[in-house]
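One chain given next:
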Amino acid sequence: MMNSRKDLLMMKIDDHLRKMARQLVKFDTLNETLDYLTESFWNKFFCDYVAIILKEGNLLKIKFEKGESKVLAQQFPLEGQDFSPLFLTKGVAHLTEIPEDQQCRFEQYLKAEGFSNWLTVPIKESDFDSLGICVIGYRKSVPFVVEKSVENLFLEFGKDIATSIGVAINRDNEKKKVIGIDWLKENIYLGSSIDQLIKKIVERAGHETNADSAYVYLYDEVLNEFVYHPPSYGVFGSTAKIKIHDDYNLFHHFRFLEKEGGNELTIPLMVNLKTIGVLHVAKTTDIFTREDKERLQFLSSYVSVLIENARLYKSELEAKSRLEKIVIQNQELVQQTATREDFAELVNTISRMIHSTVILYDRFFRPITYSMTADSNDIEQISAVLNDKKWEIMKDANQEQWIRLNDVLGEYGIWKVIGGKDLHGYLAINLDKQEIDVFIRMELNQALNVCAIQFIKQKLVADAKEQIKDSLFINQLLVEKIEDKSKIAQYSSLFNFNIHESHKIGLMSIEFNGKFYDEHDLFAQEITKNWLWERIREKLSQFDPDILLTRKDSYYVLFASEKKERENKNYWESIYHLIKKFVSNERPGGDIFLGISKSTESMDDYFTCYKQALQALNIVSLRHKNKGFLSFNGLGSYAVLHNLHDHDTGRLFIREYLDPLMASGNDKTRDLFDTLHVYLQVNGNMKDTAGCLHIHVNTLKYRLGKIKELLNLDIDDAEVRFNLMLAYKLYDLYHLSN
């Protein structure tokens, strides 16, 4: 009889659970399903409390409940660790003994609620995927049938519930997708601006997921970073830029990328497998579920293409606008080259075009003019740092160079201004190399071309003046016989040079010490000499505005009024030390030699004075290097010898006395040649001769013996010594002149 009652009860329970399961699949929404489930347990099992508890990430929340709860409901949401696996996988009745190591807080809360009997039913589709539990509680004692068969009935029913909930959730999602599509069609449309699209997206994302904030980062390929793009939904409290560097794993930059169960969630915005940005949402107290993630993924899949299209459209408009602007700027620059002779306004226009500090240098890297932006640094500091690097810049063969001055002054691009094949100058611009795009390149090329035109214009004028000065004035003035003195007078007035006034000619040369310069690199030496001469010209013009400066052959020529020397006895010495100091500071290892002529009395004297200056220069560069400059008046016997017109007699005299020491031309013979010269200069003093030559006295005695043997002369005889010294002076004159 007892078994019959149990069987009947089992049949009733089974029948009721089956009917409930069949009924559950008929509902369209999750709320309807859970509401029916709660009412069915309440009505059929005559309980005092029913609750449907579902998992959301790592939390469990009460979704539906019926009946009064004084303790239990207030404890939710609970974390998964507060539930014993028995509740989530097998279900537990009040009479079931729970092992001590599996007891949990949820069980404590059930007991604290004051239920006499209670039953939990796991809601799961498989043994490993639990959706939650159903709790049935009784405050009055009610007998339970605790058997394996009853437990199995409820476990199977739990699977039916899980299936029904899954179906209901899918239906809810489908309905939300339909609603979402309708909303997208009404609010998101082709042609919307990026700002409009993002405003709609973040608002929808925030409402859909009950987020406190939502915002979008867009990826900048040029700067290789994610940049926040306003507006945001709620408060934007994150960093405005996220630099990628060389780490392209998005999980390292966005910890919640497509990861539900936390209070933040990031969804990538992708077009053709390329990430164009991310959508990020955040909550303060709640978490994002899988459904939230799926909704945002659906939203991002639809709007990503529209955002990319809007970006491309905006980029095209900007490109068109910039091209139109470049055309206008080009017209303005060309007009300036036609109407202006200087560079000031030209550089100001380039600075406005590129929105950067611009410094224009000439081909010797001397600053011509500059234009600074409002937020730029001190121009003197910038110029000082660039000046320290000028030789490095000038030697670089590249058209474009990049130099980072320091963290404060930033980075500067240096472009060579080239017209035809000639280098005219350098354009230094405060730019970040990574920020240069094709349009800035176009503006730079345009600026460089216009600067080159302006340089060429100035060069043509300067070359014309120099050509007149050199070919029509200097070259016709410094000849042995002037053919047309009236023309010379006309040209001299063109350069404010009084040809009839008494002048002195200074002839200067620049020589490089092999210790500092490659003697075979003549091109580099010539560049350096040109640069130095241009700077020397400026300094000499400041020292004496009336001085006339030019080049002839490989020498640098200075024409100075003779009255300047009368007013200042140290006039030429001051000039020499001014030049020497400048060269020593700018290019260590460079030697300066200066020869000065006698005064001119008439136009016919300029050729003679040029030769005098050349002779003084030759002597000082060979015999008086320590002094560095020498006047023709200080040549002594050299001046007398210079005026000898029979040069052949002089050369025969040299051969007669010195030829045996020059004949072989080897190093040993050269040593003998120099030894005799020093010996004569110190009046035959053995000790002084050995000291000057840095050799031992015994070595000197050996050399003098060889010299006497080769010359077959008594070098200690006063008459012989005079003739030998005269031969050396003639050698200096003729060989240095050649």
Notes: The two ends are 146 Å apart (CA to CA). The chain has a mean pLDDT of 78. The longest helix spans residues 290-339. The chain has 22 helices and 20 strands.
